[in-house]
Amino acid sequence: MTQTNTPANDRLRVTVLGCGGSLGVPVIGNDWGCCNPDNPRNRRSRASIMMEGQGTRLLVDTPPDIRSQLLRENIDRFDALLFTHHHADHTNGLDDLRPVSWKNGKPIDVYAHPETLTDLEARFSYIFKALQNTDEKPLYRPFMSVHHLAATQQIGNLTVQAFEQDHHTCISMGFRVGGFAYSTDLVRLDDNAFRVLEGVDTWIVDCTRREPFPSHAHMDLTLEWIERVKPRRAFLTHMNFTMDYDAIDAETPDHVKPAYDGLSFDVSLSE
Questions:
Q1: Domain limits at 19?
Q2: Which of 12, 77, 83, 190 lies 20 to 30 A from 52 at CA?
Q3: Contact by Cβ (8 Å): 141, 131
């Protein structure tokens, strides 16, 4: 099945496919940490989103849970794939997208930072090139086609502004489309990132845990960024099992909410 409810022409629809940290919630062993297992919003798959507007759909990241996420949301097609960075919790589901390439009848366009593309092409080489049969005739064509992500990237009918983020061990990419921005897996933002974020209406932003951590934003830091950027509303993502939904919701300002798997909202495409 395919999603049939499409946003108005001047709106961008964002669907949170997953908002969990690298291990998800609960972690293996059925360990919920501080999270109440009776609240379904505490069950988190790994972080990913879908953006849809003006007839164009963009998927961001392919976590290990991407198959179940797309099945849950009845999504069987999109126009391009964006990657924030190369870490396993954001890329290891890449192979599961081969049926989308079959349905489209062509390779999926993949946009990412050059370092991310290099890593993906090394780990998933068979996806990016034709597989030769013994008689040198291709057994199948490439499933995906790579593109270096530009600072301003036109993909279909959507314009994506990309900005670098410091993820301690690597660069991650943040994205802005119209009045929406997405920033996961980061611990520092530079002046250029804040410039791109200026005037944003809705921001999904990394908030992995309560306590400081070398590679991810913690709650006090994320709230500091939100106060500086001043979005109309913000949603926290990449949350681990220390981040109980109701507890975080009670502790944050009214315009700041924890995200949850399946959250969907529309935002203006005008900046």
A1: 13-264
A2: 190
A3: no
